[in-house]
Amino acid sequence: MFDLFAIFTKGGILLWHYQQHAAVSVVRVVNELISQVILLERFHLATFSLGQLLLKFKLDNNFELIFVIAYQKIAKLMEIDRLIENLFSEFRNLFAERLKTKAYFDAISFDTIFKPILKAYEIENSNSISSNRTMKTFTESKKFSKLSETQKEKTISALEHKESNSNETIDETLNLIDSNSYPEDTSHIQTSFPRAIQGDRVGGARRGRGRSKNHVESKKIVPKKHIKVGRTWDGQISQVEKESLNYNKEDGPPDQTIDVASYVDPVTAVGGMRGDLSGIDTMKESDTKPTPKVSRFMSMLGGLTGSKPVGKDRLIPVLEAVKEHLITKNVAAEIAENLCASVGEQVEGRTLSTFTTVRSVVQQSLRDSLSQILMPRRNINVLREIITKRKTVAKPYVITFCGVNGVGKSTSLAKVCFWLLENDFRVLIAACDTFRSGAIEQLLTHTKCLQSLYPGKEGSQRVTLYSNKTNKDASSVATEGILIGIRDGYDVIMVDTAGRMQDNQPLMQALGKLIHRNTPDLVLFVGEALVGNEGVDQLQKFNQSLIDYSFAYGDSVKSSLIDGILLTKFDTIDDKVGAAISMTYATGHPIIFVGTGQMYTDLKSFSPESVMNALLK
């Protein structure tokens, strides 16, 4: 039934374990749980999947212990939480003195107590499975328990109203059947109905004939004289049409002048973004006064003092307030709930000293969880990586921008390009958006603007745009651009891709082909800071699609994943920075750049500390 039982400390010291099958490695189970759950602050998870096993665990915050049970996914087990609680209580009561002194390396004999409890559970579980279970109502379901208190009240009232209306309808139907109130003679219905229709038709026809003459006379249209044009029978383009499409003539339309001031201040901006980007600052002077909701949240925390273990009944209202506060900050509802559950798992059962309040503990636990979430798994320093690659392999650093439609990929690409030009790099932009009309022209406008700000030497531009309008294969265009960049000695290749929805399989397959074929050094997902749940869905499906289609092309998972996030429109959200938490929590990808406006200089680096302050204020 069960494959493994284990008790270990948060530091990884194994105190006791019971193994029923030798095929299940206790070391592997403990290490995976520590690396994938404990270190990532994912204590809210009810279970953790490890191959064919499911891991169920419980924390003891007083003694810093973790109890884990491993069993097969196909096993039907009931009331596992109660079993864990019973075993954990027995273990703590029996070895409380050792745990207080942290005598972890003394021999522990727990088998004599463990086996009778396990035997009783197995009998009870088999009886529970064999007995019939009634279907739960919606108010008893897990989905209902995840709702907020306000949503629960509305749902209950709606269900009661629906039930009362249903009962009234049934009563009215029964009364109607009992009254036998059927018409005795229904012949008049059959005779009068066609007459009424016939009368309406006659009157309508007469009225129609009466006004049709005036109606036609009042709307007489004088036909224009038709000029016959010779038809081209072979379907070939005519000479006149060729001339109208030729823009290479000397008397053709002149190039439009680029308004550089609409993108950047050419006087003060040039030379002001050398080195690393400055971080975002979401805290303002007007933000020092807490809002009413935050004040209520803080007062609820302040009312809970130490002096005794923190129980679940004392934490529920506090965590509910934290959840609502996070949702108002644009954190996705599911992620806000998971985050609160993780904080609750860390605080529950902890005995505080007399001068320690639950408020300070919850605040610190929430801040630690957010810090762990926002901590990047891969430390990406773009400037350093460009210089390192140029010195080691003498090839350009390739950055690919991807995302859904309308989030500002091309504008963000131009901002990053401006920053790289500020740091004395030569940049080639590969226009691989072969789908959207005007995509190449938009990049051409940005390129001309940047060329006017950073004019290169004769025959050697600082920034160049490469495009191929005759080639509709984006991966081939990117390959051509990279080869030209290598030939001409560019430092950075920036690949602009077409916007695509995350459910569009052909376009996602084309993106997977582009990444597999060209192996960029950095793949950036461009998303909006305005969205919550939708942004998480976009990022997750983009990442999963890249993995799936890269497997189809024979690529590995590591080289297929999105490397980082560029959040746009960050200046429009004030302190509602929840999208940053949602995207990072759901995928683990770091936020590298943040767009704060339309100008080239409106590009910042991501600051986890600033986001946490805005989220917790």
List keywords for this structure.
3 domains, alpha/beta, 48% helix, 617 residues, GTPase activity, elongated, 8-stranded mixed beta sheet, Four Helix Bundle (Hemerythrin (Met), subunit A), 20 helices, Beta-Lactamase, Rossmann fold, 5-stranded antiparallel beta sheet
Structure notes:
The chain has helices spanning 26-38, 80-94, 96-101, 111-130, 142-145, 149-179, 187-218, 239-245, 292-302, 312-328, 333-347, 358-374, 382-392, 409-422, 439-453, 474-488, 505-518, 533-552, 578-587, 608-616; strands spanning 2-9, 14-19, 48-50, 53-60, 65-72, 397-402, 427-431, 463-466, 492-496, 522-528, 564-568, 591-595, 603-605. With 617 residues, the protein is an alpha/beta fold. It has three domains: 2-130, Beta-Lactamase (2-Layer Sandwich), CATH 3.30.450.60; 290-374, Four Helix Bundle (Hemerythrin (Met), subunit A), CATH 1.20.120; 382-607, P-loop containing nucleotide triphosphate hydrolases (Rossmann fold). A hairpin with a 4-residue loop joins strand 1 (2-9) and strand 2. The longest helix has 32 residues, at 187-218. The radius of gyration is 34 Å and the shape is elongated. The model is unreliable at 186-219 and 283-297 (pLDDT under 50).
Distance from first to last alpha carbon: 48 Å
Class by alpha and beta content: alpha/beta
Strand elements, count: 13
- CATH fold-type name of the largest domain: Rossmann fold
CATH homology-level superfamily of the largest domain: P-loop containing nucleotide triphosphate hydrolases
- Morphology call: elongated
Into which percentage range does the β-strand content fall? 5-15%
Q: Round the mean pLDDT to the nearest integer and report it.
A: 76
- The spatial strand order of the largest sheet comes to 8-7-9-6-10-11-12-13
Portion of residues within helices: 40-55%
Main pleated sheet: 8 strands, mixed
Discrete helix count: 20
Q: Can you identify the CATH class of the largest domain?
A: Alpha Beta
Radius of gyration, CA atoms, in whole angstroms: 34 Å
CATH architecture of the largest domain: 3-Layer(aba) Sandwich
Residue runs with pLDDT of under 50 for 5 or more positions: 186-219, 283-297
Q: What number of structural domains do the residues give?
A: 3
